[in-house]
Fold each of these.
Amino acid sequence: MSQYDPLVPAPTPTPVNIRLLQRVGSRPKFLDYLVTLWDYRHFVYYDSRARVMSGNSQDRLGGAWLLLTPLLNGAVYYLIFGILLGTGRGIENFISYLIIGLFLFQYSTRSISTSARSMISNRNVLQAFRFPRATLPIAVNVREALSSVPTLIVMLLLIILIPPVEVISVKWLFLILVVGLQSLFHLGISLIMARVVGFVPDVAHLLGFGLRAWLYFSAVFFSVDRFADNPWIMAMMNANPMFIVLDIARDCLIYDTWPSMVRWLTLCTWALASLSVGIVFFWRAEERYGRG
Amino acid sequence: MDVAELLVSSPAVVVDDVSMTYSVISSEQRADIPKDIFGRALTRIRHRRPTVAVDALHRMSLIAQHGECIGVIGRNGSGKSTLMRLISGQESPTTGSVLATSTPIALGVSAALVPDMSGEANVMLGCLAMGLGRAEIDAKFSSIVELSALGKAIHLPMKSYSSGMASRLRFAIAAAVDPEILILDEALNTGDAEFGERTRARMTELREQAGCVFLVSHSMSSIRDLATRVIWLDKGEMLHDGDTERVVTLYEKFIWYLRRDDQASAEKIRRAARREMTRVEVTERAAGRRRWK
């Protein structure tokens, strides 16, 4: 080729003023990245809203599946664990206990597993436009948050309607706070998983098992009291953020007790840690999403 | 030299020693892949699929100034689209780097959007993804819809569109921004006669507004009309970079020989082009470490 042709002249060194130039497609500095994310908030909002509407359009029952899934799950778990295995024995108001667990856990599961695939399922959009990539998993989370509003209302109605009837108290307002912290927590996990699955799609298969194991470990259909004499399991339970979410929600909604300060602090720490680790971890691969 | 130095002082785009090697999976049987099932499984897991390296672009440098319209010519598979993807940042080069004053926008190459959403929603989403503000989109919305010539079909989900309709919409969305550095691929200029006329009009408008344009085209007449300078790529190599008239003449001769299957004469032209070209080697003006690497 040209290198071997003795008659090809050597290149002329050409000085260039690079002060005004930046590398094309390079990832911005972290703080700039956060600012751009904010600038793209309309994109996030529009994307999530548009997809809430088109999300279930393939199914005949559409958005009703958001309610039917946890309800049917609840029926199955109630039959197997509540009646057949009797794990609910000793739990006061087991049905409401189960419903809170399933509805809240489903919210996290959906957010994490959908946003984990967001770098793969949106490859077209990633290749066509240059925008901060973190907007996509964030949009998925916003969408799930929007569609969780009606499901959570149904959850509350069920708790009120199914006997034993619960009294509505001021403590119910804490549900908003705990769900908010839960959302921040799984947003962080979503960002981490979006990067991992974006480059190693196989992990998406494992994620399903992981989330299921987590569900079983978070005392959704049994009481932690059965492990009271095992300090190791108790310590792990008390550190498990999803268990804390469910525990706080149950305290407020059905047991009419104030959740302990330790619980709130642990949950806040988890939410902040997961979100900050998640966003930094995601940002570090910013240039490489949607390629190859 | 001094004059040249002044000219290159603050360019719009600098392609510095860029090359691109793809590693692609090949169905060809290779000797170094074990034949037995365990060996194969092991190579798969270790991510050593039977791949071959394809040199899409050999190392090349180029400097584009503000106000230039650079024609990019070459046969199919010469690396034109690869170079354009690198310049627009859709891919990152294997070696070297591309620098620009602002992100170059490639016009509607493959902006496939969200098939489940209506054309309208896709317009909104595409515009927001390009970083336009709500007010800007509202102002441009009707002109985008008009340019796409979709009429009432704009309310239908995109998956119901014919491929022509979808590409019209993509073009209309991509053409909604007024980029400073613009990459135009004339292969885009297809579609029916009515739409072709509108695209051409909008392309002209964009080209006139942009500070620096890369024009990929197989039509030598539009290159002659528009380009102020031409780059000739062949088999991933930059054969020439220079005066429009000279490069186009060489290229046309080259193609003419190839059509007559006269490989020897074609090769002679390639060599002549290569020797004539002034190659650049990008160096930073202020001495010191190259910060962008």
Amino acid sequence: MKIINCPINGPRPLQEFHFGGEVRTMPDPAELTDQQWADYVFNRDGEPGVKREWWYHVPSGTWFIAERDNRTDEFLRTYLYNAERTDG
Amino acid sequence: MPHRLLKFALSKKHPEPRMFRAPAGLKSEYDAVIIGGGGHGLAAAYYLAKDHGITNVAVLEKGYLGGGGTGRNTAIVRSNYLTPEGVRFYQGSVELFQDLSRELNLNLFYSERGHFTLAHSPASLRTQRWRAEVNKHLGINSRVVTPAFIKETVPEIDLSVGGQQAPICGALYHPPGAIARHDAVAWGYARGADRRGVEIHQQTAVTDIEIRDGAVAGVHTDKGFIKTRKVLSAVAGWTTHITKMVGLRTPLVIHPLQALVTEPLKPWLNSIVVSASLHLYVSQSSRGELVAGASLDPYELISMRSTLDFAEGMSAGLLDLFPCLGDIKVLRQWAGLCDMTPDFSPIMGTTPISGFYIDAGWGTWGFKATPISGKTMAFTVAEDRDHELITAFNLSRFNRLELVGEKGAASVGH
């Protein structure tokens, strides 16, 4: 069973988590051209490597950030948004 | 032992003609290079040679032919999609498939079975009716059928779905829905391309693509540099590796999709049965195995690992639909990579880089598109403009905010 380290609840099984996609910062739409906005809306960093992603621990309602290698499925770190990074 | 097999044991040489040559080495220059020796790349090579007379072509495959999505899908062919763009495109594929065994002179075991997409709710039935009406309008044999019709055609099915799930209240029925032997499709196109002069290089990985002044100048491989002005990327689940080399941004994200086969059984399931609510599709292969696939794994991963979660979930779903399978064992399970687009339509055609053509975004709908994708991408590479069947699928649709929302795709729940 795959175990993910929730920053609040500690190691929990994968079935308790929901994937929330890559961590992205929304630019100010008023400052962008339509092309730049389309790039933000649709394009993703789907390349192989270590990714920063949103994950959600369903039972406790905790959104957090995970650094994960999308080739090996290895979770390198998990931490709360705006919180100190803790080794996960 | 049959004599045909015995002669392999007794002969020092390979006693049968090879399906295709193993070329000695890479030439320094080709008119076109195709990355990816799966069905799509090989079909494009075949039609480049056959329809357009371009034979100085290399197909580069980092593993072995048909080892990616081509050999990992559940081999279903159908054209009952939802968007007119999708329906026209996949219907082109069905028509090519129906004559493909003869054209390639290889038995593809193309077998028309009839394809049910089960609806477990009025909302789902509404989507199936929408699909049926779009299909009929475009001349596709497709209609909504009642639970009684389903039970009559597939008597083993439990319409109450074990009482644990919403019962079946109808289905979209598509009589031309078929299955085929997917490996043979790759081999047949490979042989056809090879006989027309195309070189197929297996165990040859592309390491970089040389771009000069916004145009393709060549391809770096682990066996040396090749000069070429045209590169077709037909690597599906590995597309983000290639787009990274050329600096092209796309919406593609990669998810695994898992499938399994059971031990072989006597023929009993003639139809192809799909339930989007249970996230499964199942058919019986010509060998008797039940071939069953799921929807996407729930998070991004560029790895073809299998999970117990999948085996459990799929077995539960199969038992809910077919309680008679209680004693049947799973023979093996595997995963393939799906390069997903946000609108469930492929990304095909020209790109902002001159001479770089993309055939990607094949998600869960790649195998059935193999012939038409090969034909239209060969046209696109030869003419340097998108074939009319694929203009709606160009990468630029995202910049223009003109998506092609394909809710008829296997991975879409409705």
